[in-house]
Amino acid sequence: MAETLSTATSYTEDDFYCPVCQEVFKTPVRTAACQHVFCRKCFLTAMRESGIHCPLCRGNVTRRERACPERALDIENVMRKFSGSCRCCAKQIKFYRMRHHYKSCKKYQDEYGVSSIIPNFQISQDSVGNSSTGHPTFKCPLCQEANFTRQRLLDHCNNSHLFQIVPVTCPICVSLPWGDPSQITRNFVSHLNQRHQFDYGEFVNLQLDEETQYQTAVEESYQVNF
């Protein structure tokens, strides 16, 4: 039987979630100076966009780390040993298998809207526009009011629709390269607060698909002089 976290360990379930993608770690890596942990792909993508700063605290990251971050093997080992609750169905799953579980968990798909599997199709932009500053704007799917930035949409829904639970499509998710316009979000306000507290564009080049970004990071790592 899988072990669960308890007072026997200093870890909590939050310690296994990446602060960039908000998902359970996939190949966790750790910064040397500030000791923050991220998914390897999230960290490399952030380094490509921000240059020399930790994505969480803006602390300095060495050139060597930017190309070849140190794996957080202690975190990996704990993830293989301990189980935690699925954030939606409460089923006990070993942390290193949690992402795989999310792909088949219907409650997770209903709550968070975006599948862990990145689909390959063209995305509808009906609910997405651009402000005069070039930032994307969105239409609220609950009241159809338009021209909200991500933060303004978040504030608007928390103020006006906090207890309104209606199945809708998330316009922010639709605007992303991996967004699925057919994916329905059961609790839109909860979804916004869980998935859209930050702008993905700060960490990800949205003009490139995930595989291209990963390959670019790998290629750039070979050009770094240690």
TrEMBL record:
The C2HC RNF-type domain, residue ranges: 86-105
Catalytic activity: S-ubiquitinyl-[E2 ubiquitin-conjugating enzyme]-L-cysteine + [acceptor protein]-L-lysine = [E2 ubiquitin-conjugating enzyme]-L-cysteine + N(6)-ubiquitinyl-[acceptor protein]-L-lysine
Domain annotation RING-type: ranges: 18-58
UniProt-annotated location(s): Chromosome
EC number(s) on file: 2.3.2.27
Annotated InterPro entries: Di19_Zn-bd (IPR008598), E3_ubiq-protein_ligase_RNF138 (IPR052498), ZF_C2HC_RNF (IPR034734), Znf_RING (IPR001841), Znf_RING/FYVE/PHD (IPR013083)
Annotated signal peptide: none
SUPFAM superfamilies: RING/U-box
Main location: nucleus
GO molecular function, a single term: ubiquitin protein ligase activity
UniProtKB keywords: Chromosome, DNA damage, DNA repair, DNA-binding, Metal-binding, Transferase, Ubl conjugation, Ubl conjugation pathway, Wnt signaling pathway, Zinc, Zinc-finger
Top-rank taxon: Eukaryota
GO terms under cellular component: nucleus; site of double-strand break
Pathway(s) per entry: Protein modification; protein ubiquitination
CDD domains (UniProt xref): RING-HC_RNF138
A single GO BP: double-strand break repair via homologous recombination
Oligomer status and interactors: Interacts with NLK. Interacts with XRCC5/Ku80. Interacts with RBBP8/CtIP.
Protein name, entry field: E3 ubiquitin-protein ligase RNF138
Organism: Vombatus ursinus
